[in-house]
Each structure stands twice: as C-alpha cells, then as structure tokens.
Amino acid sequence: xxxxxxxxxxxxxxxxxxxxxxxxxxxxxxxxxxxxxxxxxxxxxxxxxxxxxxxxxxxxxxxxxxxxxxxxxxxxxxxxxxxxxxxxxxxxxxxxxxxxxxxxxxxxxxxxxxxxxxxxxxxxxxxxxxxxxxxxxxxxxxxxxxxxxxxxxxxxxxxxxxxxxxxxxxxxxxxxxxxxxxxxxxxxxxxxxxxxxxxxxxxxxxxxxxxxxxxxxxxxxxxxxxxxxxxxxxxxxxxxxxxxxxxxxxxxxxxxxxxxxxxxxxxxxxxxxxxxxxxxxxxxxxxxxxxxxxxxxxxxxxxxxxxxxxxxxxxxxxxxxxxxxxxxxxxxxxxxxxxxxxxxxxxxxxxxxxxxxxxxxxxxxxxxxxxxxxxxxxxxxxxxxxxxxxxxxxxxxxxxxxxxxxxxxxxxxxxxxxxxxxxxxxxxxxxxxxxxxxx
Length: 439
Ligand code: S3P
Prior knowledge:
cytoplasm; amino-acid biosynthesis; alpha/beta; about 450 residues; UDP-n-acetylglucosamine1-carboxyvinyl-transferase, Chain; binds shikimate-3-phosphate; 26 strands; about 30% helix; EPSP_synthase; Enolpyruvate_Tfrase_sf
C-alpha cells in the first residue's frame, strides 16, 4: 500500500465502539534493549510494531542479539549478556527514545558505534545524554554538527556518576542507568519531578536491584554497576499516549462513547486523564488489573462539555507527549486552557508548541504562544486548513482528531509518520465511525 501524501478528517457523527491501543512505545523499546543486554531468551508480547520500535529491534540485532518475530506483537530476543561490535551504522529512524537509550546501553561495552537517524532526529539535542555518558568515561565524536546526530560513540571502562537533572526526562535517566549497569560503582540520577519509571521497573523484572528514594519534589534513583540481567518474559500493555486519540475524539464529538481496553495506567503516564477529568470529561476506568508489572484498565470516554483549566506545570512529566491532543480538545472547551512549564515540547519530534499553535490558529482557534507554553481558548472550531506537521506523528493525529469535530475538514501532510507510534490509527478511527481518508 502506498502512503498518501495527505490525510483529511471530516466532521463525523457519533463515534462508538471498543478498541485496543497499540503496545506502549516506551516499554517496547526497553523490552528489546534489556532483552539484548540480558542473558537468555526474552519473550515479549504486545510489542508495538511501529517504525520507531522496529528500528530498535534492528539495532539490537546489529548489537548481536537474536531477534525473531513469532507473530503479531510477539517477539523473541535472545541476549548474550551484552552488546557486541555492530558491523554498520545504527540508524534509529525517528526515535529519540531508541537512540538515547541505545547510546546509554552501548556506552557500557568496549565497542565503537556510529548512531544516526532521520531528518527530524538529526535536529534533536544529544548532549543531554552524551554529556553525562562522557562523564562516565564514554567517548564521542560529532560527525556533523555538535550536539546532533550522526555521532560515533566508543564505550567501555565506565565509572559511576551522581547526575542531577535540571528537567525531568526519562530518556536521560534511562540512558544513564543503562550505562550504569556496566559502570564501576553506584550510579545516581536525581530528577526534579519523577519521570516515567519503566526502565527502573523493567530492570527489576530482569533481576537488577534499583533503589528509589524521595528527594524534594522528585526522586533519586540508584543502581550498582556490575549486576547481570536475566531474561524474563515481558507483556507490554496498551499505550496511554496512543489511547488518548480515540478517547479525545469521543470527548469532542456529540453522542460518542468509546472504550479503549488494556490501557496502561502507570500514574507517571496518566496526567492527561487527570487533566481531562478536571475539565469535566466523562472518563471512567473499569476492570483495573495488573499486566506486565503495570496497572492496566479499560478506559471509556463519552462526549462531554469541557471547561478550560490551568494545567499544573509539575504535571508536565506525566503527560509530556499528550499536550498536542490536550490542546486539540481544549479548542472545544469553554474558556482558556493554560499549559505552562513545557519548554521540553520544543525539542520533541518537532517544536510541538509552535506547530500546535500554528495548526490550531489555521483552524480558527485562539492560541497564545509563550516561550515555555501556550494557552488555547475554546469555542466553535472552524477547521478548513491544511496543517504542516514537519513529520511529527502526534501533530498529525491531534489535528485529524480535531478535524472530526470541526465545522470544515482538516488536512495534514506527511501522515506516513503516524506509523512511528500508531500503525493502524486510520483504520481504528474509521472502525469507530471517524471519517479520515487520503486527501
Ligand atoms: C520517553 C520519554 C519522554 C517522551 C518520549 C518517550 C521514554 O521523553 O517524550 O516520547 O520512553 O523514556 P523525555 O524523557 O525526553 O521527556
């Protein structure tokens, strides 16, 4: 099937149905990487088969692990207790999580590796990870511009560090912890606010001991180097960041009711659900249970009269990828939704503050942009625009959801990038009654 150059969403009547979200992207990257660092056979089910994760699967194979697809979402990784020298360049595609975690893991081994990515990944800052890894003893050579891919890393002979992060970032924390596994001494990472803890949880599942101590508003994570990892089965639950899109559509399209089953409910990932509830969303969770070491549940959203809120900045880490879809739903709320303390959004797959502001304004929504945030004032949404996504999957999906409830159709460019995190997004939304088609 050829990928269309544009997709268009048209106003839909009520959406109804029960669907499953694709596997969690953060956990999928980690399952592959830890499986490759461990000794033995790690069977994974529910793996997200999106382009970002497939790039990580190819990478760990290049680092010497056995990687086999057993069926839909079912993968087997055979680890040999560490990474080996790869033959070629490790191309991480669009995936910031993939490249940063892989750099951390690779830094612990005596190998020399060149990392690269697509045009978007080549624009994203890498010193936030290479800086601490260099302090541990890894060596880096920038092959193009400083602070950007491509770069060559030479690992091995690491010493533990105490790292204090200025921003809560699970990618930085995870890179340091993965390097710390093969460093001499006790590695410590302190965060101003807790960021997603999938690496810590999964390291424990693979047999490592990880310490977590409260530290002001944040926490301090410690890990002693030299701990071996033992393969273990990993079950990946549904991604709350992907579930957000069909749920958002239900909230803003009159008469809708949509359930997304088996959504991961780790509290460090559910800031959006909390915010929507504060806005008046009818959002309920049923069938809470444990799966793959995480709490999961079936989340139902019904059309709701939303009211704007001020999102507490200290909630940012638990919903950093969800501000685009929050902004799209805020466009239908009465009053202003104020989102601040989210400067990190400017260094994601795109400058998400700038692109959401531009896209919403093109659709007739009142948006005020600030250096570290934006305010969206809701009302009837006109739509009627073609939105530039700069190849950012979440910018594309957020505007398509908006288009399902706007008066006039909304078109996005580069929709092929949606497959990085949510393959099957268009089919899933059509199955619920959404009108999304190639333009
Ligand atoms: C991720 C962490 C977040 C998030 C990204 C996934 C992870 O990035 O934006 O999509 O899996 O660790 P930061 O840690 O840089 O905030």
